Amino acid sequence: MKTLRGIGVVALAATTALTLASCGFSNDGGGGEGGGTSLDLLVPSYSDNTKSLWEGVIEGFEEENPDIDVNLEVQSWDNLETVIATKIQGGEAPDIYNGGPFASFAADGLLYPAEEVVSPEVFADFQESFIANEQLEGTTYALPLIASARALFVNNELLEQAGVTEPPTDWDSLLDAATKVSALGNGIAGYGMPLGSEEAQAEAAVWLLGGGGTFGDESEITIDDPSNLPGAEQIKAMIDAGATQADPGSTDRSPLMDIFVQGKIGMQVGLPPTVGQIEENNPDLDYSIVPIPTRDGSPFTLGVADQLMAFENDGDKQEAITAFFDYFFTGDVYSDWVKAEGFLPTTKSGAETLGGEEALAPFLEVLPDAQFYPTTNAKWSATDAAFKALFGQLQTQPAEDVLQQIQAQVDAG
Amino acid sequence: MRAEPVGAEAGTRPLRPAARPRSRGREFLQALPWIGPALALIVGVVFFPAGVMFYNSTRDISASGVDRGSAGLSNFAEVFAFPYFWPILGRTIVWVVVVVVVTVVLSLALAQLLDKAFPGRRIVRLAVIVPWASSVVMTTMVVYYGLEPYFGIINTFLVDLGLIQDPEGYGWTRNAGTAFAWSIAVAIFVSLPFTSYTILAGLATVPSEVLEAAKMDGAGPVRTYFGVVLPQLRAAIAVAVLINIINVFNSLPILRVMTGSIPGYDADTVMTMIFKYIQNQHRLDVASALSVVAFVIVILIVAAYLRVVKPMREV
Fold first, then answer.
1. Alpha carbon distance A388, A250 (integer Å)
2. Of B65, B78, B288, which has the smallest distance from its Cβ to A21's Cβ?
3. Are residues A285 and A345 both part of a single domain?
4. Are residues A388 and A247 in the same domain?
5. Which of B2, B20, B33, B99 is the most buried (most CB within 10 A)?
6. B263 and A249 in contact by Cβ < 8 A?
7. CB contact (8 A) between residue A187 and residue B150
8. Mean pLDDT along residues A44-71
């Protein structure tokens, strides 16, 4: 797109076939308005509060740094990755971006190494396990913003009705408990299994990794691996036994969680914000949070960290970005932000501040056993997309075939 | 656009045949200040993006949007080598043909009804516009939520009637076949207003003398309709069909909402596949290539339609 830069055409959005695959254009734009520096901040919306939380942060920051203007843009998670790709293609990458996988940006040489845009004291405050997850060939490219871990939400009342006394800890007891709850009838499902496109990769990780499988590492993606088969087969076993809700292959996570909150699902894997969701919508629900059952009962959780990363663009905003990160990750600014969004902190000081939060306790507890997606692999984005598009076919196709198809799409990407 | 007749006149009526070749360029220049803005707009929002689409389809663009150089025709090769491409193309044709044919047939009936004078006709005519006036995404979402298991109103209704045995309802939008069928229903629903009104406008041009003459000659209502009214509607139907073909072929939101959560490619059309290339796989280059293919297909369909049916021929 470089040849088309500077033409200054304002692309009018149009959704016809002609323009569906075209990209946006813009002039070189950027800072320099009125002598000060301006930072473009592109963030996804975690909740209805996200925008006002960031606005609060920006207000405080601009007060301390009057010569820096921060422009906030909030996008939905659905659109975020398309928006960033379009912006990059149009030569208009934001200066700071809050997103998931960063490896493809780093591979294209678009990012500042994290240590160049944050002071050493702040950098040292991050938990090492999280920083390790942000590295590509030894260089840290992103700063972990928030973390979440998963745990099994159990509807105590339904389990009791079905005659299950203890929440399950391994696959056998889970299948048994879920089958019994499903047998209650009346539209009640034992285990809520969302394999639909929304977050198929998460449910896949819960089962494949929980069965001793692997998604690969920094250099290789291994979905079509024999170690992933037990997990995939167990998903099929759950479906075939009628232990899940109907059509798990195309059920999305969020709507299914709503059904759990309404008390019609026995067990489902949830996140820290689920606690708040239940409190808000159905505070009478009698539930408990237990570790995710695995093949052999060993502790495991799927950890996810979202990152902040800084794009180099013209390379003239390093100081302003450093000022922003230092301000954001220091003291109460950060812990208040994390607390309001209901996630887990990634800094040592943040963990201390929020350690007393009761709702977060079950999750902080399982965090040490967390496994992460191989987000540092440049192919992770393609893997993630392949899971979303194909994993739900487990409902109707043999496990090997589905894993092979996912691997094939990853290798082609 | 008042300046246009100057050029048009010179182009169509050879008033000064000898002088034409030389003066044509000058007349165009004279007209330019008036048609310039329109031309700039057309170039800017139609030809330029289309050109970029063609250009992108031959580039190798990374997942984060960086152009890594020419890719020749390999993007097209990938589009055609995709094992689901032909089923998707077949489904696209089913989608276009079923939606357009059913829409036109229903619209013919609806227009006939709306053409008759009856008390409350104005209200009924207004009601027919409603699906047109409301957002397609919103209309589709309403149906989508209605079809949800557990809380969807359509599902609950069917359960209460005893047509579905499971108390949580059936996963209409969770299975490729039913989700696609419901998408067709929604597409017909939102296409009806435009088509009905186009045909209604056509009906208004049928002279009453002709109808009277048919009656005098002893033609019954069926004969009158098929022998007299329908042929006169040819131009109106042609416009309705052409615009609907293009619209329906290019329609993304309905299928995106109704079939979005279904894994695999069993409910996709060319448009949703383009969207999946962009949204899921970040393959801007392959998506552009498929867009070019789609563009060519639409042109071919329209050309075939014009050639076979000759809808614009004078009656």
1. 10
2. B288
3. no
4. yes
5. B99
6. yes
7. yes
8. 91
pLDDT band at B138 (very low <50, low <70, confident <90, very high): very high
Report which secondary-structure segment, H or E, holds A323: helix A318-329
Tell me which chain A residues have a C-beta less than 8 angstroms from the C-beta of B281. Answer: 382, 385-386, 389, 409, 413
Residue of B79, B137, B280, B286 to mutate when probing chain A, most A C-beta within 10 A: B280
Q: Is A170 domain-assigned?
A: yes
Q: Which residues of B touch A104 (CB under 8 A)?
A: 62-64
A8 belongs to a structural domain = no
Nearest CB among B44, B149, B167 relative to A186 is that of B167
Output the pLDDT for position A355. 76
Please give the average per-residue pLDDT across B51-61, as a whole number: 91
Q: For chain B, which domains are there?
A: 4-56 (no CATH), 83-309 (1.10.3720.10)
Sorting pLDDT into bands at 50, 70 and 90, what band is A69?
very high
Position A9 scores a pLDDT of 31
By C-alpha distance, the chain B residue nearest A22 is B53
Residue A21 lies in a domain: no
- Asked if B210 has any chain A CB less than 8 Å from its own CB, the reply is no
C-alpha–C-alpha distance, residues A9 and A7, integer Å:
6
Answer yes or no: do A280 and A346 share one domain: no
Residue B7 has pLDDT above 70, yes or no: no
Closest-CA residue to B75 (of B64, B61, B86, B87): B61
Residue A73 maps to which CATH number? 3.40.190.10
CA distance B171 to B168: 9
For residue B108, the one-letter residue type is: L
Residue pair B285/B61 in contact (Cβ under 8 Å)? The answer is yes
Q: Express each pLDDT in A325-368 by its tens digit.
A: 999 998 789 988 988 887 888 888 888 888 777 777 788 777 77
CB contact under 8 A, B56 and A22: yes
